[in-house]
Amino acid sequence: MSERRRPKLAVWKFASCDGCQLSLLDCEDEILALAGAVEIANFPEATRTFVEGPYDLSLVEGSVTTPHDAERIKMVRAQSKFLVTIGACATSGGIQALKNFADVDDYIRTVYASPQYIDTLETSTPISAHVPVDFELRGCPVNKVQLIEVVSAFLAGRKPAVAAHSVCVECKQRGTPCIMVQGTPCLGPVTHAGCGAICPAYQRGCYGCYGPMETPNMPALAREWTALGASPRDIRLALSTFNVAAEPFAEEAAKHGD
Amino acid sequence: MATKTIKVEYLARVEGEGALDLSIANGEVTNAQLRIFEPPRFFEAFLRGRSYAEVPDIVARICGICPIAYQMGAVHAAENAFGIKVEGQLRALRRLIYCGEWIESHGLHVVMLHAPDFLGFDDAIQMASQHGEVVKKALALKKAGNEILRVLGGREIHPVSVRPGGFHRVPTKAELAPLAEQLKAVRDTAVELTHWVAGFDFPDLEQDYEFVALRHEDEYPFNEGRLVSNKGIDIDIAEFDSSFEERHMAHSTALHAAIKARGAYLVGPMARYALNFDKLPPTVQALAQEVGLGPVCRNPFKSIIVRSLEILFAVDEALRLIAAYERPAEAFVPVKPRAGVGYGCTEAPRGICWHRYEFDAEGTVMDARIIPPTSQNQPSIEADLKSVASGMVEEADEAIKYRCEQTIRNYDPCISCSAHFLNLNIKRS
Question: Are residues A216 and A102 in the same domain?
Answer without folding.
Answer: no
